Amino acid sequence: MAETKIYILGVAELHLGAQQRALLNRCRHLFTAQRFAGLVPQGMEIHPITPLQEQLEQIRQLLEENNIAVFASGDPLYYGIVRTLLRHFPADRLCIVPALSSIQRAAALFCIPWDDARLLSLHGRDTLHLPGLFLRHKKSFTLTDATYSPTRIAGEILDYCRMIDEQEEPAQWQVLVAENIGTIKEKTFCGTLAECAESNFAPLNVLALQRKTAPPQNVFAFAAIILSRWQAGHRRHLPAYQRRIRYLLAAVPGCSRKSPPLPHLNLPAAAGWLSMALLPKRLLPQNNC
Questions:
Q1: Which CATH architecture is the domain 103-211 placed in?
Q2: Which CATH architecture does the domain made up of 6-100 adopt?
Q3: 6-100 and 103-211 have identical folds
């Protein structure tokens, strides 16, 4: 008897392609989200894909005698279900047919290139400081969810800019949102951070943030980078950051102490050291530094 397989089929349209249908016909069981239920052929046994951890055991049991199909949104290799499946099943038991990712489709809807963008995901994930995640990049594409919505992200960036007295910074950013990509409810939004913070969006979408000009090389730009280092537990190195600040102060506009020109510094590291030493209480007032 041939070894059974799990067929992970990416879905990006309201219909299946010939290859997807052919592979689906080899399977008796399908695990899918409810939004793809209309694509399921008659006679197939349908199972919910969530909660995933509980369904993995059922997939394992059914796989002993049957091929299994799994519907995934877009490219299942990009922040998708394949990473989880590979932790539970050998790679040779998986057959992956990706579709266009939601990032690719959103970029096409926005008509902007994405090869120079930072790709992020907040879908089912957590972060300690949203502004620090976004403001360090000139352009980013992000998968969002109901918890970390574009509304919340824009609002927290605006609050952060007010907190550090950067009143002109929000006007530098353009916000684009693609909702319900590939469905009849698909629509896009283009506006400012303030307009986004006052809008409502579908739970699953792609958020693009792009700065109209290059980020400034000053304490404000550095401050955004430090948050990821703070999350990683680098607060214990604060004395070292404070010592190195003496060497880096000349990189900040308005400081007179001599040091090497800014382009010669290791900017990612320098940004972390500088921000930690100068702005810990302004950025994270709840922490006692």
A1: 2-Layer Sandwich (3.30)
A2: 3-Layer(aba) Sandwich (3.40)
A3: no
pLDDT interval class at 289 (50, 70, 90): very low
DSSP states along the chain: -PPP-EEEEEE-SSS--HHHHHHHTT-SEEEE-GGGGGGPPTTPEEEE--SHHHHHHHHHHHHTTS-EEEEEES-TTSSSTHHHHHTTS-GGGEEEE----HHHHHHHHHT---TTSEEEE-TT---S-HHHHHTT-SEEEEEE-SSS-HHHHHHHHHHHHHHTT-TTGGGGEEEEEEESTTSTT-EEEEE-HHHHHT----SSEEEEEEESSPPPSSHHHHHHHHHHHHHTTGGGGHHHHHHHHHHHGGGSTT-----S-GGGS-HHHHHHHHHHHH-HHHH-TTS--
pTM over 0.70: no
- Write down the domain spans for the chain: 6-100, 103-211, 219-283
The predicted structure's pLDDT at residue 35: 81
